[in-house]
Each structure stands twice: as structure tokens, then as C-alpha cells.
Specification:
The chain has 116 residues and is mainly alpha-helical. The chain has 2 domains: 27 residues; 57 residues, DNA polymerase, domain 1, CATH 1.10.150. 48% of the residues lie in helices and 7% in strands. The chain is built from 5 helices and 4 strands. The strands form 2 sheets. It has a two-stranded antiparallel sheet with strand order 1-2. A two-stranded parallel sheet has the order 3-4. Strand 1 and strand 2 form a beta hairpin. The model has no long low-confidence stretch (mean pLDDT 80).
């Protein structure tokens, strides 16, 4: 029985398509890995430390808007997203329950030891 080149090509393309879909699924699984859950609820995204990809994925917003959020750091409160015109009031209303603005601890300053 002789195989036609068309049949072989179609088979090879099907294998490539399947492997590409598997790679895409693995990439999405890695991206979804940071979805930390606490008792069935998603943890809020820290706008002061998350990457633009994490912000975009977790909040369901455009990567460009996420980049704008990252560029405006640090935020003392999440409300600054609106007051600094980073996001519109409508966008803020949809994400405010999903974000926090944690503050990084201030570096401790060591005092020189007292001389005796």
C-alpha cells in the first residue's frame, strides 16, 4: 500500500497542531499558577509588587493599562489609581475588591553602638 504525500503532510500538520495546543495549555497553566486561593477566594493583587502580566491576567484588564499601573508605583492606597488618573472610575469600581496596595517595610537603620 502506497501513501500519498498529501496524506503524510496532513498527518504531520495534525501532530504539529496538537503539540502547539499542548504547549499553549502548559503556558496558560504556568500563568494561572500565581492564582493564590484562600478558602475558595482569590487573594487580592498587590498593585505595588505584581508584574504587569499578573495584574492584567488577575484583573482581566488590558496589558497596556497594567503597564500604566506598574509605571505609577508606589501607591500608598489603591484609591490613588483613580486620583492619579491611572484608571477610570468605572474600571476602578470593577477592580477595587480585587486589589490591595501593600507597603514594603522601611529598611531598618542600624544605630551605631554606644561607646563606653
Amino acid at each position: 500500500m502506497k501513501r500519498s504525500p498529501l496524506r503524510s503532510t496532513v498527518g504531520a500538520l495534525a501532530l504539529l497542531l496538537c503539540s502547539g495546543l499542548m504547549l499553549q495549555a502548559q503556558a496558560q497553566a504556568k500563568l494561572a499558577a500565581p492564582l493564590a486561593r484562600t478558602k475558595g477566594k482569590l487573594k487580592p493583587v498587590d498593585i505595588n509588587s505584581a508584574t504587569k502580566e499578573e495584574i492584567s491576567f488577575m484583573l482581566g484588564i488590558d496589558v497596556g493599562l497594567a503597564a500604566k499601573i506598574v509605571a505609577g508605583r508606589p501607591y500608598p492606597t489603591k484609591a490613588r489609581l483613580v486620583t492619579q488618573n491611572i484608571v477610570s472610575a468605572e474600571v476602578y469600581a470593577s477592580i477595587k475588591d480585587k486589589v490591595v496596595a501593600r507597603q514594603s517595610p522601611a529598611p531598618s537603620v542600624k544605630k551605631p553602638a554606644a561607646k563606653k
